[in-house]
Sequence to fold (142 residues):
Amino acid sequence: MHLYQEKSLWLIEGFDLKEEKKKIVPVDHLINVTPYPKKKRLSKKKILEKLSKQEEDINLVLELGPKAIAQFKKYHPLKVSISYTNPYQTTAILKTFVNVKNTEELTEITNWLLFLGVDIKVREVPEEVLEGLQERLNLYCP
Fold:
């Protein structure tokens, strides 16, 4: 579906036809690639239909203003996308799932939320993310 480079690694976001779910696969060291037989392939539309039915529970919802959208365009995690809420693309909504049991993911989302800046409105956020943000802010308090 997509080819990305993140943290000096090349990754492909693809759809596993056997498990019928989205996967992110590192592709830095691929040697031999063969296309899937045409008879067994799914169209991108059918894949997107299957993915929309399998959406993970969304636990982070943000409204982004123009400055936050600019930051988002500079860097965003692979699985995060935005939907513009006006025709001028100056406001957007971000909905995603944060695995609060994964400490590395919690740290990364905390860093990224701070990177977005003050032009965001939080609509829904896991308690663990709020705690991480509070810990980070306490570093700057005397």
Q: What stands out?
A: The helical segments are 44-53, 66-74, 103-116, 127-138. Residues 2-53 form one domain. The chain has two domains: 2-53, 60-138.
